[in-house]
Design goal:
The complex is a heterodimer of chains A (284) and B (244). By secondary structure, chain A is mainly alpha-helical. Chain A has helices spanning 7-18, 26-52, 61-96, 102-114, 117-128, 135-140, 149-173, 177-185, 190-219, 222-227, 238-247, 251-276. Chain A is built from twelve helices and no strands. Chain B is an alpha/beta fold and 244 residues long. In chain B, strands 1, 2, 3, 4, 5, 6, 7, 8 and 9 form a nine-stranded mixed sheet that branches. In chain B, helix 1 (10-23) links the parallel strand 1 (2-6) and strand 2. Classes of the chains: A mainly alpha (284), B alpha/beta (244).
Chain lengths: 284, 244
């Protein structure tokens, strides 16, 4: 875009706005306070209840929790690796090239964010299930996807991809093309250009997008339970285990896992803020 | 009146509800069908209902322990297990013993869901009969489990969709469902499980209405409806001699 950041001037403008003379009445404060309270209360209650819950789970539950933890970590990291490998080229293309169908591709990439996870799960099942559009060929070849750990990764891929690609697209688009032109004129090959100039410049936003995508993959539930199933150690990720343990009457186990995910969520937000700085707008 | 009932009772209770509604138009019946452990958890967490019908006595005991049941629960119907097969099951499954074959994909309900627990009991019984079912039957069959569902209807759905070769569900779940989509293999009485369904009043509910509903379910008409949907009755008038 050619726009240069002017941090100092922007700050001054923010401060001026904050000190503007517009009257903010008590109704505004009250409305805001109610919403904040509503957002905070469940989280406080979760922590408080987890700390005080006395009834312990059956001895087998510890095993379930460990398996869920390991499975969630392994699958979400694998999903992230695939998203980075395939999503980076896609984001670059969307940011830098105008090609036919670009708008369609962008809509397709954005869709999983607004699509209800249950719909995503059902759609994956219809595509890759044993009688699915593509799945029937896999079935003939003896490959079963449903109920496997691979299905967990696929479900996570589907829902988490947009979080990275959208951020990365924005990050690439923001890079000052003058810098890239300068590097090219100094003799950099396209690969060197991308690796040494473009990527480092976009890294903060790419990093923030990656963290968001990873967090989304970690928290995936609806698509996973429909498409991948719910077997401890194979497809029961942490969100599924929380749901399962709660339904089985093991509130303490469910609370413990929830706490872990809550801490992960907080760390995620922290990481996004630190990595991306002001430029990492969560609504990209 | 709000009635919590195990998923396997859905069709039968809905019919009973329709019958009662027709006879007493002023009645307003709301059903909540879910896996038994889910219902108990919901009640424990404060959901309001007038009565609850579960699929095994262990879950009812859990409900009693949670303090949500008033009075004594009673058994109101029985059920038995059967094996369902998808229409393109591969390899071919012709007898219960075939469930132990290597490539079979099997779906059961979760272990704490009554249908899942009963299924495992039946598999254990078959395991004890090595001559008929082979060695390590239980181990080999459980190796084939690809998914554990929250309630027994989800098991049936997975098999109907062809996502699994076989599942173990109640006889009542396949009554009327047989067709091109699924096949059924009966489980011999010697190893089958008799599922006993308890029904009880929920603390804080409308006792008079709930008691009347329970009375209807235990009456000749109620039991007849349940039998229509594949269950086995308990009432003195229609009792079948205890099987298995």
């Amino acid at each position: 875009m050619g726009r240069r950041d002017r941090p100092v001037a922007e700050d001054k403008r923010h401060k001026r706005a904050a000190r503007s003379g517009v009257e903010i009445g008590p109704a505004v404060w009250l409305g805001a306070a109610l919403l904040v309270l509503f957002l905070a209360l469940p989280l406080v209650a979760l922590v408080w209840r987890a700390a005080t819950e006395a009834s312990g789970p059956a001895s087998g539950a510890g095993e379930v929790l460990n398996q869920a933890l390991l499975l969630s970590l392994a699958t979400s990291v694998l999903s992230l690796a695939i998203i980075l490998a395939l999503g980076t080229p896609l984001a670059y293309l969307l940011a830098r090239r105008r090609f036919r169908g670009a708008r369609l591709v962008e809509t397709l990439v954005d869709l999983p964010i607004v699509l209800p996870p249950a719909v995503a799960g059902l759609a994956l099942l219809m595509a890759f299930g044993r009688r699915g559009l593509f799945g029937r060929w896999l079935d003939d070849a003896g490959i079963a996807l449903v109920f496997t750990t691979s299905a967990v990764v696929l479900a996570q891929l589907f829902v988490a991809t947009p979080f990275y690609v959208r951020a990365a697209r924005g990050g690439f688009a923001r890079i000052d093309s003058d810098l890239e032109d300068a590097a090219a004129s100094l003799g950099a090959s396209p690969f060197q250009l991308f690796w040494r100039v473009t990527l480092p410049l976009a890294r903060p936003i790419l990093g923030a997008g990656a963290v968001l995508a990873w967090a989304r993959a970690l928290g995936e539930f609806g698509a996973t339970i429909l498409f991948a199933g719910n077997v401890p150690g194979v497809t029961q990720t942490m969100p599924l285990a929380i749901y399962g343990q709660y339904n089985a009457g093991d509130l303490r186990g469910a609370l413990l896992l929830s706490l872990v995910l809550l801490v992960v969520a907080l760390l995620t937000l922290l990481a996004v803020r630190l990595l991306g700085g002001r430029a990492a707008d969560l609504t990209t | 009146m709000t009635i919590f009932a195990a998923k396997s009772l859905r069709a039968a209770f809905t019919a009973i509800g329709d019958d009662l509604q027709a006879a007493h138009p002023e009645l307003d019946l709301t059903f909540n069908f879910a896996g038994s452990p889910t219902l108990v958890t919901q009640l424990d967490q404060g959901a309001s209902a007038d009565m609850v019908a579960l699929a095994n006595t262990e879950q009812m005991a859990a409900a009693v322990a949670a303090g949500v049941i008033s009075g004594e629960p009673e058994i109101f119907v029985r059920n038995e297990l059967t094996i369902v097969l998808s229409s393109d099951a591969d390899p071919e499954i012709l007898t219960p013993a075939d469930l132990a074959q290597d490539e079979v994909t099997l779906v059961l309900a979760q272990p704490d869901v009554p249908a899942g627990r009963y299924a495992r009991e039946a598999l254990c019984a078959m395991d004890r009969d090595s001559p008929t079912y082979g060695d390590d039957y239980f181990a080999r069959v459980t190796e084939n489990i690809v998914s554990e569902e929250e309630d027994v209807r989800a098991v049936l759905t997975k098999v109907q969709l062809g996502e699994a070769d076989a599942g173990i569900v109640y006889v009542s779940d396949v009554a009327g469902e047989e067709g091109d989509e699924i096949g059924v293999i009966p489980i011999p009485d010697a190893v089958n499980v008799v599922a006993t369904y308890p029904i009880g009043l929920v603390v804080g509910g409308d006792e008079a209405l709930a008691t009347a509903f329970i009375a209807y379910v235990l009456s000749a008409e109620g039991q007849a409806t349940l039998v229509e949907y594949g269950f086995s009755p308990v009432s003195a008038g229609l009792a079948t001699p205890a099987a298995g």
